[in-house]
Specification:
Number of strands: 17
Structural class: mainly beta
Number of helices: 2
Strand order of the largest sheet: 1-2-3-4-5-6-7-10-12-13-14-15-16-17
Order of helices and strands: HEEHEEEEEEEEEEEEEEE
Helix content: under 10%
Length: 323
Amino acid sequence: MKPAFLFSLLLLLLLAAAPVLAQQEAQYSQYMNNNYLLNPGATGAEDYIDVKFSYRAQWVGLTGGPRTYYASINSSLGKWRTTNKRTLQDRRRPFHALGGLVYRDVTGPTSRTSAYLSYAYNQVLTPKLRAALGMSVGMQQFAVDGSQLQFFDPTTVAASDASRVLDGSVGLWVYSPSVYVGISGTQLLANKLDFSYDPNQLGAGAGNSLRRHYYLTSGVRLPLSRDWSLVPSVLVKAVGSAPLSLDLNAKLKYQDLLWAGVSWRAFDSAVLMAGLSYEQFTVGYSYDAGLSELAGYHFGSHELLIGLRLKKKTQVVCTNRFW
């Protein structure tokens, strides 16, 4: 890959975010089980076709609480081998990867529907350390369902409308069998949604802009014994002029088969997680207990994740190192 192209992508990633009105991206608790969600650089980092499906119900019991659905798939291209069958030449060879993500986030009368395609170039740094630079492009649709809006005057009928904008993200992913570090920027184009609300018409006003999001994440696998390992990780999120968001996570794993974990999202929620990985199947569940002032008005948040690790031929898939 040409150095000029890499430099251009990194410049996009480091663009400063202007303080503008925007919709926030969907919240996830099991992002460490699918880092591809936050960083296109993680596209194809595993030695299998990685398929994930998820459903999240946030703030259960609160009318109009967010509901989020997504499906993702990503894989390296070219010759696929299991980890223990890779030759020395395979380990040193760079490769390309492709992926796709679709999601829908519904909060009361508003909804966001998005679809993305991603590409990553994966380069060897040392025999055990790799770096991947990825980018994704896609479309976002933000919509308002006027029939769900209620007014003091019951005769008032609000309009429904939707705005579609192009979107893009860039990410750098550096990883080895025992550690990973990633930095990414999403909604980098910061395009304007072509409407703002008026009781009788949507489409009036200057509109709102999508706000750029920046993520820094890292994790490490610490062997405790032959069967047990501990995987602490951290996520820092920056959104424009908003305060930094910090997540601290820890997962205890048994033979890459069972895992349980906890997470603390600073001053917002505490999360309990558990999951099972068996052959090509993965299932994970998390429960968020609110810690903010809003906690008294809902019964927490639930998130379910189902994953498939697929190969072109029937053979053992590699161990699930982090998630």
